[in-house]
Amino acid sequence: MPYLVAADLPQEPAGLRFRELLKQPGILKLPGAHNGMAALQAKAADFEGLYLSGAAMTASMGLPDLGIITVDEVAFFVRQIVRASGLPLLVDADTGYGEALNVMHATRVFEDAGAAALHLEDQILPKKCGHLNDKKIADAHDMAAKVAAAAKARRNLVIIARTDAAASEGLDGAVARAKLYVEAGADAIFPEALNTAEMFRAFAQRMPGVPLLANMTEFGKTPFFTAAEFEAMGYAMVIWPVSSLRVANKAQAELYAAISRDGGTHKLVDRMQTRAELYATIGLHDYEALDSSIVQTIVPSGMPQRK
User: Fold this and answer.
1) So which residues are the signal peptide here (predicted)?
2) Domains and CATH numbers, the chain
3) pLDDT of 116-163, one tens digit each?
4) Counting CB atoms within 10 angstroms of each CB, which of 46, 85, 157, 207 has the fewest?
């Protein structure tokens, strides 16, 4: 059912709902959703929360992940995903779009747009994907000031501090930063680009009592681990940030190649979401039922065949 009737809308603030999910047994699985349709499909697969990746957002806009999009552009993605799914959403806030005051502004905008949580990272601009080389790391106290600013600005939003320091400062440096960020007001920590199970376990052992987030991105520095394996290593949350976009992009590339090669889409119809499946996913008939002035759409029974 679409979230158009007030009684169907979640009544509790998104941040509080995210906190309740963290209290539940087991690791919180947060698949990346790069738009409203992906959010609906993830919800249909019974996920209870979602993740919005900066890399997925920018790639869907035809841009690299260098921290060059704006707060308002991100808020557009937040609104459509939350409106479509109603699920608590963790948002990638990159470096906070500036310094402390900018971070406070972003925090308020994202929470007003419906976000449940955000994470800030301790890189400096131009930032890079956490799994790339030669990342420039911010001063730890400057990052702590950003975390404190976000904590002051939020109402219920969960603040997660991401540290990219393991690559340049080692595990000791990453742990020291994480502890400083928790003191500054972070609710959880995201150690980025750890590359062995031993590193994941060691980091968790040195951060007792602090919820930790693991990043299971493909084609990066982290080997493939399952959600259960991350949970056993001491992690409370896991994200698959760009997976939905990667699959969608691969399928689209194959579609365009087929049209160019074959002069049409006829060889790929069996791989498409049907009209009926699309309407069911977006709840078209539910919308029509809410407005009796709209005649219910009848889905064509099949494609016309060539004579």
Assistant:
1) none
2) 6-242 (3.20.20.60), 249-290 (no CATH)
3) 999 999 987 666 565 556 667 889 999 999 999 999 999 999 999 999
4) 46
